[in-house]
Design goal:
About 35% of the residues lie in helices and about 15% in strands. It is α+β, with helices and mostly antiparallel strands.
Length: about 210
């Protein structure tokens, strides 16, 4: 194994979160071939109990999927997403940037009071900007934590596009040029949140929903 591969192995082993190629390059000696080192490690760890995987735009070591049962233990889940929260998260993932009113339009029901607060608190979604429409509503998008939680390298890896449409979580009249959104890029009709504006708070405190 090359010195670069060994150095990358050490960095990833100690990292608390996935490291991008840029992260690794900053820590390695100048001129280190990061891509070759990652390729070496990927081949070395293939089929072993610990694998090198690409998630959330970065690389990390994780337990092989077929051995996950060894790590399972019975415990109380501190917080589980409600059906409303799961649906809201799916809509944000596929429609982002999206406003609360647009989420309600897709779901056909008023947004559950507290749902967006829960998703924000868990770090799965973030406030990304403001729509250039009357009222300047805040737009929401997913985070790297969302990708990491679901084991996705990028939003392009989101599964079940047709199933999501069938479930009514995606508009059936998507434009022909529809593409998976970039969660970090502002949309043409979206402005960034004002850096000097007071902190915005989504004041949802309950869980009831009412149909329109």
């Amino acid at each position: 194994m090359s010195d670069t591969a060994r150095e990358i192995e050490a960095l990833l082993f100690a990292a608390a979160a996935p490291l991008t190629i840029e992260d690794l390059a900053r820590r390695l000696p100048e001129g280190a071939d990061v891509a070759a080192g990652l390729a070496t490690l990927s081949a070395l760890y293939e089929g072993r109990g610990v694998e090198l995987v690409h998630v959330a735009g970065g690389w990390r070591f994780q337990t092989a999927p077929d051995l996950a049962w060894l790590m399972t233990e019975e415990r109380d889940e501190p917080r589980r997403l409600s059906k409303a929260a799961q649906e809201t998260l799916a809509i944000i993932a596929y429609h982002q940037p999206v406003t609360r009113a647009e989420i309600e339009s897709v779901r056909g029901v008023a947004a559950s009071r507290g749902t967006l607060d829960v998703l924000l608190e868990l770090g799965l979604v973030r406030m990304r900007g403001r729509r250039r429409t009357p009222g300047r509503p805040v737009t929401f998008g997913t985070t790297d934590a969302f990708l990491e939680h679901y084991g996705l390298a990028t939003l392009a890896d989101l599964p079940g596009l047709s199933e999501m449409k069938a479930a009514g979580l995606l508009s059936l009249d998507l434009p022909p040029d529809f593409a998976v959104p970039d969660p970090n890029a502002l949309a043409p009709d979206e402005d960034p949140l004002e850096a000097d504006a007071p902190e915005f708070h989504v004041d949802f405190l309950g869980e009831d929903e009412q149909a329109h």
